[in-house]
Amino acid sequence: MSRRTALAGFASFLAASPLLRAQQDPYPLSEHKRALGLAEMQNVWDFEAIFNANLPVAVHDYTAHGDGTEWTLRRNRQAFEWVEIRPGRPAAPAAVDLSTKIFNTRMKVPIMIAPTASHGAVHPEGEAASARGAAAAGAPYIVAHLPSVPLPKIAAAAGGSPLWYQLYGEREVEANRGFLEQAQAVGCEAIVVTVDQVAAYYPRTLRDRNLLGRPLPAGRVARGTAGAARYGIDTTRLWYTWRWLDEIRKIIKVPVLVKGILTPEDARLCADRGVGVIVSNHGGRSLDYDPSTLEVLAEVVDAVNGKVPVLFDSGIRRGSDAFKALALGADAVCVGRAQRWGLGAFGAPGVQRVMEILQQELVQAAAAAGHTRRATINRSAITTHFT
Question: What would the pLDDT profile of 261-277 be if each residue is shown by its tens digit?
């Protein structure tokens, strides 16, 4: 047995271990004799193995990791297992209409692409490929702050399909003006202000000794830096205040949402300001032992009381996952890692197919449960067993 064969077999053994439950695929592609082509992709899990095979370990780890022990990363997925979809009188999928409107953005299915960074490390065309794939699937795309492709080029690739822009703010209010004005100038229909990302303690990244001399991935702080940064702790975030948000809104002429809300108290403060809410723990990356987003979604929705839209992210892998979040009150859901898998596997066509698979799975779940309109997908459509 060659060294390459031995390492490959050991990697497959580790991937199949029940201890590694962060990204649970019941049928790992490592057991197949060949890689599947784009036309053979049947669910979003199929894309993960192609993504992993195409990209370096550092890029994989940046996409896959969660904070600390990754307990929250795992719980985000496990929480979907504690919600049952109640059966109803089945309807024909063709009769299902889930179209909706969030602020000024219309969508045929309430699934959006969440903001994630560094698409240029995933595919040579970066965010432009993501925009083309999103547009082809009819899915709005939230472009992350400081994309690897200039924002006007991303807007051109979107071809008029809805774009939003996500901001990691600077303390000095005026330092944000250029980013916000450019985003609005290219037609972004809303601004998402992220307040939950620590980008601090990712053991997968910290333990990468960088033996090949690769550039450090986003969020990685070089060893040897003094102070807290020596342990990878990002000292440039978590200073946000409501006063700062009130000031920065003076630059923004489009709707604003705050991403990273997990408590009803913060949700009410957003609603009082007319600011939309995105229930998110940053895909398990913001703080280890945060609650899963699905578990807190209903109380956030109740606190907002219909005053502003409530979006949801962290853990969506199936259309049935989206159905459960919608039933708990989300107006739409956002998809991050799954979209990156599609981008890294097949570029823009991969993004398109990931989104179309999720859209069709959601329609199928709604049809099977007897829901032909978005308005009827409410808490009566599910049974929860949160612990």
Answer: 999 999 999 999 999 99
Quote the tokens at residue 45: 């899990």
CA distance 107 to 162: 9
Give the whole-angstrom CA distance, residue 33 versus residue 157. 36
Residue 5 domain-assigned? no
Per-residue pLDDT tens digits for 158-205? 999 999 999 999 999 999 999 999 999 999 999 999 998 765 566 776
Q: How many domains would you assign to the chain?
A: 1
**Number of helices (H) and strands (E), helices first, in the chain?**
14, 12
Q: What are phi and psi of 253, to 5 degrees?
A: -105, 0
**What does the block give as tokens for 272?**
């009082």
For residue 56, the enclosing domain spans 45-384
DSSP 153-214: HHHHHHTTS-EEEEE---SSGGGGHHHHHHHHHTT---EEEE--------HHHHT---TT-P
Q: What pLDDT does residue 217 have?
A: 47
* Residue whose tokens read 């990697």: 11
The model's pTM: 0.87
Q: Which of 65, 282, 371, 385 is catalytic?
A: 282
- The verdict on residue 226 lying in a domain is yes
Q: Is 96 domain-assigned?
A: yes
Q: Is residue 39 part of a domain?
A: no
Sequence-distant (6+) residues with CB within 8 A of 142 are 112, 113, 114, 115, 163, 164, 165, 166, 192, 334
Q: What is the distance between the terminal CA atoms of the chain, rounded to a whole angstrom?
A: 48
Non-local (6+) Cβ contacts of 106 within 8 A are 99, 100, 162
Structure tokens at 8: 């490959």
83 CB-near residues (< 8 Å, 6+ apart) = 294, 324, 327, 328, 382, 383, 384, 385
> Measured between alpha carbons, how far is 314 from 298 in angstroms, rounded to an integer?
15
The first and second tokens of residue 60, run together, are 């994989």
CATH number at residue 237: 3.20.20.70
What pLDDT shows up at residue 282? 94
Give the alpha-carbon dihedral of 81, 79, 328, 141, to 10 degrees.
-110
Question: Active site includes 282?
Answer: yes
